[in-house]
Structures are given as C-alpha cells and as structure tokens.
Inverse folding.
C-alpha cells in the first residue's frame, strides 16, 4: 500500500468513525429521558472518544496525503472541502471540551459527513501545483482559513440547535419555513452525493462539443444525463440522450445539469423522509433538543465566533494579502474570492457589533450564525464553481 | 445641561447614569430597574448627552453602533453586487466603448444595466469609496465617544460602592460572613491573579481590565490600514507599471530611474508526468497540460547618476536573478514580478535576393523586426532599400499598407530592390507567404529563407511604500482583537457591613461562565454566601410568565 492509498483509507476510517459517533451522540441525547445529565455524560464520553479517533484518522489522511503529493493538500476543491469537514470536527472537539454538549455533536458530525461526502464527488487524484501555488503560503494561508471556517461553522450548528428548540413547529410562521429550508438544503447536498455516486457507479459519460461565450470551440464531458445542452452543442457519444433544452453560451449547461439532478434526487429524498415519517425534518429532530440549555447554546455560538473571527481575519485577510502581494504583485485585487472573504469578515464584524446591543442575543444571533455558514458555503462552492476568478481551482 | 449631584455628594457631569463615585443610579429609570446597565460603566457619553448643534447631530449619527452596523451591511451588499458579473479589470476589453460593448454582447440586457449603473467598476466608484470613508469616520467617532469616558471611569474607580449598585449587579450575594471572610477572599482572589484593592470594610478585585481597550485598539489598527490605503493616491508612494521584455533585450525600467533590466532567457515548463511526477499522471491525463514554472532570467543594471545619457558602458551589474511566480526580483524598494509571457515572437527574418528566372541568389539579408535598417547592401553590389515597414500588417487603406499594432506579428515590407542588372530599382511588397509587385512585373524577388523567434516576458514593476503602514495597521488590529476577545474584564466587589453581613457583586464584560468558575473557588475558600445569577432569575420569571399565559 503506498502513501496515497493509505491516505484515502484513513479518510474512510474517519468517515465511518464520524458516522458511528453521530448515532452514539444521538443516543446519548435521546436516551436521556429524565433530563438528568448522567447517562448523557456517559454516552457522550463514548461518542467523543469515537469522534477523536476519527479525527486522528482524519489528520492521518491529511498528513499522509501531504507526504504523497509533496504539498499541503489544500489546493483543489476535493482537498479544501475535505479539510473543511475535518476542521469542522476539530472545532467541535474544542467546544465539546469547553462545554460538554453531546447534542452539538449530533448536529455537527452529520454536517461534517455531508461535507466530506460532497468533497469526494470532486476529482480526488493527486494533482500538481501551478506556479502561483508553489509556496509555503499555500499551507499557511489556506490552513488558517479552513481552521477558522471550521470553528465559525460550529456557531451555525449551535444556532441551528437553538432554533430547533425555540421555533414553534406547530404553527405556520416564517421561522418554521426557513428552518425547514435549512433542512431541505442539507438534504439537497445529500441528493448531489447520491446522484453523483449513482451515475459514476454506472459509469455514465456523454461527450459534447460546443461554442463558448467567447465564440471559441470547446468540449465537455457530462457525467450525468444531459438535461441541458451547451450552446450549439454537438454530441460525440452516440448513445447519449439528446439534451432537452439548449442554453445560451452564458449558462454552463453541464453544471446546470448537475444542479438539476441534485435537486431532483434531493427533493425526492426529502419527500420520502416527509412521507414516511409524516413529519417535517425539523420536527424529527425536535425531541433531541428537548433538554437543551438555550443560554448555553447562545454562549457556544458566540464563543465559536469569538474564537473563529480573529483566526479568520489572520488567515483569510492578512495572510491572504501577504501572499497576494508576493504572487500577484498586489495585496488586493477585488477577485471574487477575495471579495467574498471580505463579505464574510464584514458579516461577522456586524454580528459582533449587533451583539453589543440588547435584543440581538438568542434567536436573532442564532439566525445570524446560520446565515454566516451560508456565506462561507457560498464562498466555497458558488464562487469556485459559478463565478470564475483567480481562485477557481476546481 | 446641569451637573448631577449624587446623594453621596459627588458631582457628576451631565448625562451620567451611575454615580462615578459610589455607583448609585442617577436616573429614575435606572433606579427602578432590577439590574443596572453596566455598559461603559454608566458614564456620560457625549452622544447621549448633547443633541443641539449640527456638530452634535453629526457626532451622534456616527457614534451610533446601529449606524456603524448599517454601513457595514451596505458595504457588504455592495461588495456582493460587484461579484455578480466580472469587474472591468477582468474583462478582455480596454477602451470605454469596448468595455460597454463587451458587457452588452456577453451578458445581454443584464450586462447593459450592470454597466449603466456603473457596477462594472463598483469598487472604485465614488459612492463605494464614500461608504468606506463613512465607515472610517464612524470608527473614529464611535470609539472616542466610548473610550474617553470609559477610560476615566475605570481609572478612578472606588473600592466601596453603594449597596444599591451592588444588588443591581447580575451576580449578587448577601449573607452572613465570618471575621476573616474578607481576608480569605483576598488571598484566594490574589491566587487567581486578580488585582485586589481594599478600602475600610471592602475590597475590589479586578482582572483583565486591558481587555476593555481591545475594541479601541483594533479600531485604531483599521484606521491606520485605511490611512495606508489612502496614501497610495499620493504620487511616489505607489508604482504599478508593466514591462514587456524580449529575450536578449535591455530596457530602462519604467518609473525606476537609473535602473535597466535585461532578459537572458524566458522559460515555460510544463509537468511531464514522468519520473518523480508520475504520481500526477492521472490528473494530467484528465486536465491536459499543467504549467510547472514561468521564469525570466534577468540581469539588473544600474547607471550611475552622473553618467552621460546614452553611455551604455557605464552600466553596472547589480544582480542576476531568475524571476519566477512567487519569487519577484526585489531591489531598492521596488519589485519586479513574472506576470505574463508571449512565446516565439518573430525576431528577425532572412531573405535571399533571387533572380526569378534563374533562381540565382545575389546574397542574403536579415531584417531585424524590432529595429530594421533603412538599406541593406549585399556583396554582389545589390541593395535592398526598406521603403516601409509594417510590423503587424492588417491590409491596405487608400492604397497604403496599414499596421494594427507595433508588434511584429505579421510583418510587411515595402522594399526597393536594386541590382547591377536593374539599376533603376524594382518595388515589391512582401508579407509572409505573399508578394505584391505594385509597379509591374519584377525580375528579382526576396525569397524567404528563415525566421528567428524569441520569447517575451510580461513583467510588472511595482513599488508600494504603504505596505509597512498596512502591515502595522493589520498587526495592531490583530492585537486589539485578541486583547478584546480572548481576555475579559472581571470584577468582584465585596463588602462586610458592621453586623458581619457580606455583600458580594460580580461583573464581567463577557464569558459569565468563566466568571462564575472563578467565583465558585472564592466562595468555597472564603465561605462566602451563595450567589445568584439575577439575569437567569429574570429570564426564568419571564419564561414562567409566558408559559402561564399560554396555559390560561
């Protein structure tokens, strides 16, 4: 077994450990019917042990891959997103040590699992670095950012738990709608994973040529049945289905097709869950948060941002600027990724200032924390895949 | 407005909420509330006190956190709008009209509207810069409005506070105490690294006051940073030039007096996927070629200031350096970056003057495409006179050949060929693969023999004297943020009344869990009365009330 294989096996180990820990955390919370914290504590300890084992395996993945590629594995969509899943768990472990809250694990770990699964849908082979990335600043800048984002995301998890507890699901309200929307979007990510896995397992491929928005000829390989065709497409694969709709050059029909399939599969999954359980997903989770101490969740959410914000400033702005000055001759160039890092930073700065005032703690803070996570994910996914720029490395 | 005299006799400036000396609430509202508002220690902030003149109004506007947050949110949304379509700097068009057309052609009506609203250059628009300016003003005013009174108040704190101040603190306890309770509490608090001051029957223990300055320190950092960014508008602080340098060429570095740069070689290397790079094989198969290195080997020369213009021999070699991405050439506050390249630009073309009938050559000539000569004398006594040179020939206009750019992409030559046999000369227009004879059939032609090419490096010349200021701003910001966020200001007031009753109050600006952990240790050690978290009590009462309502 070479280093690269060892690395991916360690990632599997981490994945499975997190999966098991999720259920043990859930059991620790759910099994605690009387609301005493004894059994919760005992099972919580088992769960955190499994989580830590998984995290160590995850770190093992990271460093063996570093050894195999010869550079910090933070250079493409697969590597960065996997690292984000890892730091999310790392952030959780830190806050678990501080506050001993199994319910946090029950929410964070499945999200981390989703993120790692999402990452695995991107090409994961060992790839070489382009000249701009050949520097130690890759490891310094990106690792600081990914650690900061992992910690900041914990505040969203705490916020989500807060909302699950306080939002009244028996009455129609904006809060109930948006809370369920969060659950739905998590299921959509699962939909993407399921769709990608299914089509790649069946070996689906369809090649096309098309004319891009600059008017040049280009080629594309679909890995899902092409619902949308590229601008002036010509099929190269005979047995491929004919796209139903041809899009203008501005729209990347290949990506749109992936989104379409993810939404279809995700929505089907979502309604299956709803039909079988006859409940909203939020309502399914509600019993788990019955004994949650709201003040503690608010504190965890705030604490996570307090820890994460300075780290984010350092990694995503200061280190980023230093590297940009060295590699691109200017420390700031309004590249979309840079702008969205600034937006993230401004958002958390606004959060910290709002919390100075009365009335912004509790539920409002919880919503803000969740929005912060949405911005982070937007910068990770949408800015890479939709808005092209210097940072488009997927 | 008048000064406020407290019952204790202390005279407080107008607008004070809690007496600077004893801590009594000075307003009726505060007197009736269950807990005191400890923000800024109940001091008189200018913005909360005066609201008459226009200056007061401006001050109050910018000192408001709400206004500050609103500016942040507007900036955030504006920044996001700027990423919907690429900014003009990332668009392959340079002139105003070309840019406008590009947005319209590529993005249709959305692009037209985007360009019309000026969003294609959003971050340099006046309104965006004005917003940043407003944020800076807000940073300064909001900080001053709070820092000055807070600093004074914390500096002049008294140990003994009025019981009405203490029982309105979130953490409060009242109960019997022993004779040595205060002393024991003092010992334990000192052990926990608190600064303890005593006065008569009371003590004030304090830890981490410096964390209260964190927000102001980080705001100073941001102001320094923004100041640095502003400085670059002043000439001399900032240089951003590009320099295209051909292999073998030496050029004066633009905006850098006295320095010259020569390119020895440009190299583009791709990953081969062989040998050590075998691990990358799979990835390379998928994406095709991946660049491994862009490098220009340069020599930096300096000409002494007293050297005569044009005297090349006085140049001194300063440095030989391979400029690569991430490894700029640095000298004397300047830096030169590898940014771009053009491979195989035409350098020189060699022709043979040939008799069309016999194919006999009368000799060869090589034309330098950057710096061609006017006439070329051949050994046979023939001459080739270059009547016109069109480096990037783009067609004829009114019978005149035109050049699109000054770069030798598609050279065209208008030549007069004179041989011993044709002393009156023959005119010919030559481009790659094509010859036109405008004045009738010629006997001789220039037959293309060979071409020399070379690479061109696209370099960026940069000087940014604001960097140290920006770095300082960033450093101060980080110190301030860490100071304010990773530390907190904890205080305990303990008093023992004449009858032995202990009054205890505690306050922190954040992390009440940490405060309680400290207090638990002190309570145990000094057998202090059990404390309550009055905020929790209030929350619980409110909740019970709500539930009661729901039930009824």
């Amino acid at each position: 077994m070479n280093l690269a294989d060892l690395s991916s096996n360690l990632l599997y180990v981490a994945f499975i450990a997190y999966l098991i820990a999720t259920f043990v955390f859930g059991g620790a919370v759910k099994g605690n019917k009387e609301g005493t914290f004894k059994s919760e504590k005992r099972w919580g300890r088992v769960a955190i042990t499994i989580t830590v084992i998984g995290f160590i395996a995850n770190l093992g993945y990271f460093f063996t891959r570093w050894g195999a590629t010869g550079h910090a594995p933070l250079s493409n969509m697969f590597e960065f997103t996997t690292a984000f899943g890892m730091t999310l768990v790392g952030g959780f472990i830190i806050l678990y040590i501080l506050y001993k809250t199994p319910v946090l694990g029950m929410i964070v770990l499945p999200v981390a699992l989703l993120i790692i699964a999402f990452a695995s849908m991107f090409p994961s082979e060992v790839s070489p670095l382009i000249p701009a990335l050949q520097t130690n600043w890759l490891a310094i800048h990106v690792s600081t950012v990914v650690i900061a984002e992992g910690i900041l995301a914990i505040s969203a998890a705490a916020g989500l738990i807060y909302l699950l507890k306080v939002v009244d699901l028996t009455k129609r309200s904006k809060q109930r709608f948006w809370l369920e929307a969060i659950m739905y979007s998590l299921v959509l990510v699962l939909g993407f994973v399921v769709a990608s896995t299914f089509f790649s397992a069946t070996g689906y491929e369809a090649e096309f040529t098309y004319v891009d928005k600059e008017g040049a000829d280009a080629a594309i390989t679909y890995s899902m049945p092409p619902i949308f065709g590229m601008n002036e497409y010509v099929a190269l694969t005979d047995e491929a289905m004919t796209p139903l709709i041809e899009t203008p050059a501005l729209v990347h029909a290949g990506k749109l097709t992936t989104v379409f399939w993810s939404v279809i599969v995700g929505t089907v999954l979502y309604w299956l869950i709803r039909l079988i359980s006859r409940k909203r997903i939020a309502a399914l989770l509600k019993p788990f948060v019955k004994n949650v101490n709201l003040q503690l969740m608010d504190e965890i959410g705030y604490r996570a941002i307090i820890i994460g914000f300075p780290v984010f400033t350092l990694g995503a702005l200061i280190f980023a600027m230093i590297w940009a000055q060295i590699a691109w001759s200017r420390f700031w160039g309004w590249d979309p990724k840079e702008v969205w890092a600034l937006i993230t930073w401004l958002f958390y700065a606004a959060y910290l200032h709002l919390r100075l005032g009365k009335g912004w703690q509790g539920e409002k803070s919880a919503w803000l924390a969740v929005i912060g996570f949405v911005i982070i994910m937007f910068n990770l996914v949408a800015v890479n895949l939709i808005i092209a720029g210097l940072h488009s490395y997927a | 407005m008048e000064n406020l005299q407290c019952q204790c006799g202390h005279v407080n400036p107008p607008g004070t909420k809690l007496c600077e000396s004893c801590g009594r609430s000075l307003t009726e509202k505060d007197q009736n509330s269950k807990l005191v508002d400890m923000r800024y220690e109940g001091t008189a902030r200018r913005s909360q006190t005066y609201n008459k003149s226009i200056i007061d109004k401006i001050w109050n506007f910018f000192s408001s956190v709400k206004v500050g947050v609103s500016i942040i949110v507007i900036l955030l949304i504006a920044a996001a709008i700027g990423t919907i379509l690429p900014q003009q700097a990332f668009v392959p068009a340079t002139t105003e009209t070309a840019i406008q057309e590009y947005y319209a052609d590529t993005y249709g009506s959305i692009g037209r509207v985007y360009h019309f609203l000026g969003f294609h250059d959003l971050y340099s628009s006046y309104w965006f810069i004005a917003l940043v300016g407003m944020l800076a003003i807000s940073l300064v005013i909001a900080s001053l409005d709070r820092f000055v009174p807070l600093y004074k108040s914390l500096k002049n704190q008294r140990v003994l506070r009025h019981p009405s101040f203490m029982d309105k603190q979130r953490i409060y306890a009242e109960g019997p105490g022993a004779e040595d309770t205060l002393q024991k509490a003092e010992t334990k608090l000192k052990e926990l690294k608190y600064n303890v001051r005593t006065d008569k029957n009371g003590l004030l223990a304090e830890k981490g006051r410096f964390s209260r300055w964190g927000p102001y320190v980080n705001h100073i950092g941001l102001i320094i940073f923004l100041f640095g960014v502003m400085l670059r508008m002043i000439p001399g602080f900032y240089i951003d030039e590009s320099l295209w340098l051909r292999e073998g060429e030496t050029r004066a570095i633009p905006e850098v007096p006295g320095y010259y740069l020569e390119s020895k070689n440009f190299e583009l290397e791709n990953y081969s996927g062989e040998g050590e790079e075998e691990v990358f094989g799979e990835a390379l198969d998928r994406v095709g070629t991946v660049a491994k290195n862009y490098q220009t080997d340069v020599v930096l020369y300096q000409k002494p200031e007293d050297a005569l213009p044009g005297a090349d021999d006085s140049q001194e070699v300063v440095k030989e350096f391979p400029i690569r991405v991430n490894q700029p050439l640095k000298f004397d506050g300047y830096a030169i970056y590898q940014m771009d390249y053009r491979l195989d630009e035409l350098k020189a073309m060699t022709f043979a003057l040939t008799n069309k009938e016999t194919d006999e050559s009368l000799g060869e000539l090589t034309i330098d495409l950057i710096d061609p000569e006017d006439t070329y004398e051949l050994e046979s006594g023939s001459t080739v006179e270059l009547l016109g040179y069109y480096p990037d020939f783009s067609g004829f206009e009114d019978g005149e050949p035109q050049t699109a750019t000054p770069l030798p992409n598609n050279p065209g030559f208008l030549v007069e060929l004179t041989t011993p046999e044709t002393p009156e000369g023959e005119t010919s227009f030559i481009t790659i693969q094509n010859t036109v004879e405008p004045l009738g059939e010629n006997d001789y032609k220039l037959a293309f023999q060979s071409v020399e090419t070379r690479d061109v490096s696209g370099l960026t010349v940069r000087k940014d004297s604001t960097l140290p200021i920006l770095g300082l701003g960033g450093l101060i910001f980080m110190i301030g943020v860490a100071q304010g966020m990773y530390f907190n200001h904890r205080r305990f007031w303990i008093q023992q009344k004449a009858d032995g009753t202990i009054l205890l109050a505690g306050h922190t600006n954040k992390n009440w869990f940490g405060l309680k952990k400290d207090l638990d240790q002190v309570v145990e050690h000094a057998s202090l009365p059990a404390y309550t978290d009055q905020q929790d009590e209030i929350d619980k009462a409110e909740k019970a009330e709500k539930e009661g309502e729901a039930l009824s």
